[in-house]
Amino acid sequence: MAVTIREVASAVGVSVSTVSRAFTAPDQVQPKTRQRILDAAAELGYSPNPAARSLRGGGTGTLGLIVPDIANPFFPPIIKAMQARARRLGYTVLVADSDEREADELAAIAAVSKRVDGLILWASTLTENRLHELAGRMPLVVVNRHVPGIPEVRISLTAGIAQAAEQLKAYGHRRCVFINASRAELSRGKSIQESFEALDLSLSELGPYEPRFETGVHAATLVAAHDATAVIAHNDLVALGVLHQMANLGVSVPRDVSVIGIDDTLLASVSTPSLTTIRIDPEEIATRAGDLLIETIASTAGGAGRAPDAASPFVEIGSRLIPRASTGPAPVR
C-alpha cells in the first residue's frame, strides 16, 4: 500500500499540516524540521506529487474555486495568482461563479465537486448546516465566511478601516455613510461601525444591497439625505458607482463629498478622481487559500471531508489604506 502523509507525520512527530507545508510552503517550516520530514518521506517512499496521488487514490489533481461574481475586477487577479500557485504545486484550478445566489452556488458546487479534490467557497451564501454537510463529504475551505469547524481564510479589514477613519477624522469629517452591499459579511459593517464610533464619527448605513456598480449609482442619490460629507462603500465597484453618479449630480469629489472603496482593484487607480481604497492583497489571499486547501486535502483520508467538530485551522489576511484623490477636507457647512 502507498505511504500516507499521516505515516510521515507520525514518523517525524509533527502534525499532518506541518508535513504538508514542508512540501507546499517550505518557507513556513523550520529548515531542520523540513529536512527531517524530507528524510522520513524518502525513507518511507512517500510521494507528495498530486499526479502520483491521483493515480493511487482516484484524485483529480484539481482545486475548485467558487466566487460570488467573476465579473468583479477584484477576482481575476486572485484567480490568476491561485492558478500560478497551484501550477507550481502540480495542481490545476477549476473556477465557477455563484452570481451571489444560493441556488446558483449549489448548482456550481454540484457541477464541480466530483471533478476536484477540494473546494474553496468565497463569501458563501449557504447555511452553516449545508456547509458542514459539504465539509463532511470533501475537503473545504471558506473565505470571508466564518463557520465553526471549517478551515477558513479570514480577511481582516480592521487596520485598513481604522486608517480610513483616522484620515476622515483628520480631514474634519463628522457625518459619514456606509453603503452595505452584503448580507453574508455582517462583520464588515460591524467593524466599520466600531472603528468610526471610536473616533466619534457618525456613521449611517444604507442597504444591504448587491455589491455592484449600480448599487453605488442608486446610493449616491441617498447620501445627501443623510447630510454626509464622506462615504465608505462595500467595495470598489460600489464606490465607482458613487463617483459616477456624484458627477452626474454635479457633486464634486472630494470637494463636497469624500469617497472610499474597499479592495484596491485596478479600476480604483484609473478612475476620475482616483479612488482612495482599502487594499487587500490578491496574491496573498490566493497563496494562503490555495495552501490551506492543499493542507486540508492532505490531512483527510481518501479525499473525504473532515468532521464538523474537528479543529478548524484559519489564516488571516490584513489590509491597509491606499490614499488617493477621492478623499479630502470636509466642506464647510
Features:
333 residues, six-stranded mixed sheet, single chain, 17% strand, elongated, six-stranded parallel sheet, alpha/beta, 44% helix, 13 helices
Characterise this structure.
With 333 residues, the chain is of the alpha/beta class. It contains 13 helices and twelve strands. The strands form two sheets. It has a six-stranded parallel beta sheet. A six-stranded mixed beta sheet has the order 7-6-8-9-10-12, sandwiched between helices. The N and C termini lie far apart (77 Å).
In terms of topology, how is this protein built?
Elements: H1 5-12, H2 16-24, H3 31-44, H4 50-57, E1 62-67, H5 75-88, E2 92-97, H6 102-112, E3 118-122, H7 128-137, E4 140-143, E5 152-155, H8 158-170, E6 175-179, H9 186-198, E7 202-206, H10 213-223, E8 230-233, H11 236-248, E9 258-263, H12 266-270, E10 276-279, H13 282-299, E11 314-317, E12 320-322
Parallel strand pairs: 1-2, 1-3, 3-4, 4-5, 5-11, 6-7, 6-8, 8-9, 9-10
Antiparallel strand pairs: 10-12
Helix pairs in contact: 1-2, 1-3, 2-13, 5-13, 8-9, 10-11
Q: How confident overall, as mean pLDDT?
A: 87
Biggest sheet details:
6 strands, parallel
Cα radius of gyration in angstroms: 22 Å
Q: Which percent range describes the beta-strand content?
A: 15-25%
